[in-house]
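Bug #77: duplicate submission created two jobs. Keeping one. Sequence:
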Amino acid sequence: MRDLSILIPTFNDECVLLVMQLQQQAEAAGITYEILVADDGSTQKNVIEANRSINTLSRCRYLEQPQNMGRAAIRNYLVSQAQYPWLLFIDSDMMLRHEDYLQKYIQTPESAELIYGGVSIGEGPQDCLRAIYERAVAHEHTIERRKAQPYQDFHTANFMISRSLMQQHPFDERFRHYGYEDVLLGKELQQAGITIRHIDNPLSFERFETNASFISKTEEGLRTLKTFHAELHDYSRLLQAFRQRPWLMPLMRLTYHLFGKYLRNQLTGNHPRLFAFKLYKLAYFASLWKK
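Kept job's structure:
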């Protein structure tokens, strides 16, 4: 049996139901556990009020931060607050769909210090760009594909790690904004010779943001990628595409200049297209680089 700290970073996400489901599974498994939810300076008062009820649940704590620490720092903070030797990181917008979810993690051999369970994708509205995109790339995240490229396909939404290993390899707190903190961690783990054990134990992603919010989040992620491009060049298909095709950068920069506003308006409207999204990502990223 593993003594387990379940760690959930959140920002403007109500996650009481997720915590209650995890608590129920932990109690049924008969393990020693705690559930810590760290609120990274949420701005929606109704969400904060709802999440405060977590404090009334046995072995659960809702830790409010007065201001936003950043995606990496809030996860390191959770590690510092955890009291048990095993840590299970779960993103607050994930959904628990399998009654044996915790049991599958608990039953993995303790010789495995890092286990990633994967993510499944819910249906989502037909006019939702995030849902359209996630369904289109879902085949890239099967257990077979993850095992074939274990470090490139590692994400922080659903993984268990020993606390000692996490303390040796904390999240890089330069990553304050959306995107790629998990990619850099995967790179560092590979360089350190740490094995990532991939298992079929997904959480479900079903809460899709608006098209406008998804485009803004995508742009934020691309700015993060640009900032850390030197460290991520072998871990990003986008960077590899530009490096392998030198002519692509000026072409996409021109595309953004001529059609960027049109593409963005199309993608944030009611009939987004996947091809337009892929093109916009290339064009927006190219626009971040000076001539």
